[in-house]
Amino acid sequence: MIQIDDSTTIGEAFFKAAGLFGTSSLFAVPLNPARSYHPDGYEISYADAADAVRVLMKQYNEAGYGPGQRIGLFLENRPEHILHKLALNALGVCCVPMNPDYRAGELAYVLEHSHVDLVVVLQSRQAQLGDAIALASWQPPVVVSESFTDTLPRSLELDGRPTLTSETPASILYTSGTTGRPKGCVLSHRYELAAGAWYATRGGLATIHSQKDRLYNPLPLFHVNASILSFWCMVLTGNCQIQTDRFQPSRWWQEVRQSEATIIHYLGVVIPMLLNQPASPLDQDHRVRFGLGAGVEPQLHHVFEERFGLPLLEIWGMTEIVRAFVDNMPPRQVGTRAFGKSVPGLEARVVDDQDCVVQDDVPGELIVRHSETTPRKDFFTCYLDDEQATEEVWRGGWFHTGDIVRRDQDGMLHFIDRRKHIIRRSGENIAAAEIEAMLLAHPLVRQVAVIPVRDEVREEEVLACIVLKEAGDVTGDVDGSCYPASLEQTGQQLFSYCMKNLAYYKAPGWIWFTDQIPTTGTQKIQKHRIFAPDVDPRSLQGMMDMRLLKKRDR
User: Fold this and answer.
1) pLDDT value at residue 175
2) CATH fit for domain 422-553, picks 3.30.300.30, 3.40.1390.30, 3.30.70.1130, 1.10.3720.10
3) Strand order in the sheet with 412-418
4) 471 or 159, which is more confident?
5) How far apart are CA 28 and CA 132, in angstroms?
6) 443 with 468: CB under 8 angstroms?
7) How many angstroms separate the CA atoms of 327 and 157, rounded?
8) How far apart are CA 182 and CA 171, in angstroms?
9) How far apart, in Å, are the Cα atoms of 294 and each of 214, 297, 343?
């Protein structure tokens, strides 16, 4: 394993690995004839990747890019994303990955908030980015990756460039919060390398074998799991990350077998989809030693392990701290949502609303830190341009996760639920406030409350509870039409409105019209009173199921 310390930068670690692991594969794209790029599959060695990174570094450097700048990467899950990120980080430039599922308004917000100095975009995404730039008050120059060498624009000169250190920002990843708009998590070189080193040294059932493992990760490179946690674990141990373009249940095991993966990463949504595939004699015809992920439904945990012959190791982590807890030491607590114990370097407490430690088996909020003397070591640096939010989550010297867990008598932590307002759908954290703000901007809507409802496949789905304005209160046409004649038409119109303005996964999967939403005396919505605790909202009369439309219109 590559040795790093608190001062190591990404460029130093990567080129050290390239020199040591040379011809070993660093990154692989599995075979897929339907893919527009590398349909026959593709692998790049450490040495070849280092050569490509040096070429990119030279081009960026000669164009004037360096420390103190930010560059957006709109490159999907392609190898180019990793190569550009490595080159930019080695120069001290911070990368801002962009979610291709974002609509124009969402991308415009990221551009404005991050103030990127340049965006590198795929030709196929150029029009999508152009729509966002047209809406944004901050309009950076753009270079198409396919013609990068010939068209890279020069950087504006910067006075007093900062020195590249391990605390230099390497990435800004956007994550949803309870205030609606996504927050930009600033992640340093040290954060990223520490995450990889942590994963590489967990041991037990999660042992990583130097130059022998191949990790199949179907998750997007604009998230922390694939771009940081698994990637840096592989680099530091001389192993290979297998990156598919998008999760496809029908291709999963074929790609896993053909790529000779020994480790897989998953989300809770992946497990029922794989179990729903027809049983096959090849179900255990693979080399996978373990899966690492979060959110497997308790009743499916053992079923999956028995059918496919591998342990699913549940973890807990988030963008702010991806040095994850993991239930990796036998005997595991399969089917209990167990995700590990407090350990040196990642201390945990379970507390009540006054931050007092609760008794074992009593639910409370999970709070974490590195240690008493260095609580923030190897955590995210801050929320970009939001010191107040940063200090709020760090109150009392502990990072407040917003997740509700319980600690059993053996010290094992078990996930229970997230605090209100965050909806967890297929691995995406969705802020209810963002959807509420969008719906309230529609001229037909008087009041709205967005809450999660259980979904057997995607863990949770978005439910929008809506109070409409009276027909007489609506002035003018709405999207070129008069006030809809039926609730069904209204529901479809509001659904289409959300699909047009939000990433598809944020659009309501369920819509329910009501005459009144409970509020306090100060008109604060009381979401917990909308439905009785023992009622499944999906079964109520008048509930509109929009999930097929959501799947179709995606």
Assistant:
1) 84
2) 3.30.300.30
3) 338-341, 412-418, 399-407, 364-369, 347-351
4) 159
5) 31
6) no
7) 49
8) 15
9) 20, 9, 19
Rounded to an integer, the average pLDDT of 90-108 is 95
Give the amino acid at 211. Answer: Q
Instruction: Give the CA angle between residues 533, 538, 543 to the nearest 5°.
Output: 120
- Is the model's pLDDT at 472 over the cut of 80? no
CATH topology of domain 342-419: Luciferase; domain 3 (2.30.38)
CA gap 384, 386 in Å, rounded: 5
Answer yes or no: are the C-beta atoms of 152 and 143 closer than 8 Å. Answer: yes
Asked if residue 231 lies in contact with residue 238, where contact means CB atoms within 8 angstroms, the answer is no
Beta strands in 374-421 (DSSP E): 382-383, 399-407, 412-418
Q: Return d(Cα 56, Cα 86) in angstroms, integer.
A: 9
Where would I find the H helices in 259-402? Answer: 270-275, 298-308, 387-393
User: Which CATH superfamily does the domain covering 10-341 fall into?
Assistant: ANL, N-terminal domain (3.40.50.12780)
pLDDT tens string 425-467: 988 878 788 898 899 889 999 899 999 999 988 889 999 999 9
* DSSP assignment of 55-80: HHHHHHHHTT--TT-EEEEE-TTSHH
**Domains of the chain by residue range:** 10-341, 342-419, 422-553
Residues in contact with 490: Cβ distance below 8 Å, sequence separation at least 6, in sequence order: 444, 468, 484, 513
Q: For residue 92, give both structure tokens.
A: 């001290």
